[in-house]
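Before the break, one more example. Copy the sequence into your notebook; we will annotate it together after we see the structure.
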Amino acid sequence: MVVCAQRSFVADPAQRFVLKKMKLVVIVVNWNGGEKLTRCLDSLQAGLRGLDFACVVVDNASTDGSDAQIETRYPWVRLLRSAVNAGYGVGNNKALAYMHENNWNGDYVFFLNNDTELEESGFSSLVEFMDLHPDVAALTPVLVESDGSFQIGVGGRKFTWFQIFAHFFFLNRLPFLGHLGINLNQARFAHGKKVVDLDWISGTAMLTRSRMIGDDALFPPEYFMYFEDLVVSEKLSQWGRLVYHPGYRIRHHRRHHERNLEYYFHSLHQYLESRGFGPIKMRITRATIYFGLGLRRVMFGLLAAIKPSHKQSLNTITRQMTALRNHWCP
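Here is what the structure looks like once it is written out:
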């Protein structure tokens, strides 16, 4: 029997969120998601049709009316409000705590960004893969940008200095060194049929087993945004494999602005420092990233002179270099 999202809840409106055992719990953290959140939740209903699932949205003090929209338009969503925006990780921890307190017994938990959009069919293949491979702790599917190009940062290798160097100086683009680099080159694997084992996977769309999430906070609260998924991956890897699954695609309508770059480099510095990068190694790493970005700026500057469409990439790299200079250290 096909079970829709609403069927996960009892019929009595007063006890709308008293749940029976389900297959999947989806957690979405929202801050001023607006139309993108609407698109995300609409795609959940279509993309997860046939699965017994429930959805929790944690609203991080939105000011655009997102929370009110959820209440009126999506009665099947459990809305949790936060008085302040404490970040992506804290929002996810709030949802997990609610699940534990209310005995939500989903087999799997799916962490999903509010600016994503699921395909209408195929998600069940991810769940079936997890059912058949108990040695897998978590997976991420193919992630593409709004224009259909492959997203950078779906997962990859450990953040060592050499892997960072390999990424920023294109060593992982060479045929015999494709396994190198902090980010997986999706173009090489997205069209295949085999999963790829990784050291970390993105929190943009992360499917994991609920039994692997204990009572303690899964997400590190000290990370406002970015690199918290590397810490989560380290925890989950103690239970099993982390894999990239090419059998399903999710579109990620990312928002690029200066504030994101500030958080990115601040969190990167914070993460590397917590993993034993001392002052000298941190300076070398910063120089590696800066000169790697400089190399890219030269390349895209030449390309932009030939094809103006590359100017956007050139401007993005310039902003990245500025943010690296200004926000590398706390």
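The domain at 5-255 is CATH 3.90.550.10 (Spore Coat Polysaccharide Biosynthesis Protein SpsA; Chain A). The longest strand covers residues 241-252. Try to locate both features in your own notes.
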